[in-house]
Amino acid sequence: MSATITISTERTQRAAPALHEPVLALILYAPGGQDGLNSAYTRKHRIRHDSGGRAVLGAAQALTHEDARDLLMTLGGRALTPTRENTLATSPTACAWWIPAGERALLFNPKYAQAGSVARFSGQSVPHPPLVFIAGPGSLSVYALRENTRPTLDTPVCHAPFWNIFPSGQVCRGSTAYPQACTPDTQPDWEDVFFQSEFTGPSRTDRYMNWGKSYEELLDTAQAQGTFPAEVLVDAGKTLAQLLT
To answer: How far apart are CA 142 and CA 191, in angstroms?
Structure first.
């Protein structure tokens, strides 16, 4: 039996794919000599073409809120992030939450001169006020609340009555290893990092507590009362909304 196979030599006509041309460039700028991105900022540049057809960057322009939204959507910002009951706000790179008043063990190393007087409290549970935590890449800030209820955006925040915190509320990191992620799932990890770090002394000279006695006496008073004395807290001059924007 013989068979004949006929192969057509006619080519199928296909539409040429549409060409995509660059229209906008995003560039990260950082201070000279710095490799990290912590102090970098982003600018957009419209792309035009010169008479020779070469792409040329236009002048730098600041990103608008719409630009940031569109960029997040492009990078997968449509995904929803589950939150915890005490989560206050979350973004692709940061998370804010609060914890009610309670007790946590504090660590003090007597090798530091300022910690010598409170070294006996190291490892002991000490009452703390309600707290607000804000974690971002390589950064943790802590604030206190007067009321032991979930804060609203209008709630004023206070300075946290702990050592090793700058006037801005940011924790002095030192050599502490922070969690890699800043998500609701890692909230307990950030809290553990804060409370399990060694408190070495105040990182500020401003008035951040309404207390005229020693820090040792404050810890004694808190332990004796079973609660942190709210009258010691000093307003930070900001609301929760201002911290989150």
So the answer is: 10
User: What does the pLDDT look like over 181-233, one tens digit per residue?
Assistant: 999 999 999 999 999 999 988 888 889 999 999 999 999 999 999 999 999 99
Q: Which two tokens stand for residue 133?
A: 């935590």
pTM for this structure?
0.73
Q: Which two tokens stand for residue 111?
A: 């090798």
Distance CA 171, CA 140 (A): 6
Q: Between β-strands 198-199 and 107-108, what pairing exists: parallel, antiparallel or unpaired?
A: parallel
The Cα–Cα gap between 213 and 222 comes to 13
Residue 221 backbone phi and psi in degrees, to 5: -65, -45
Beta strands in 6-85 (DSSP E): 24-29, 41-49, 55-62
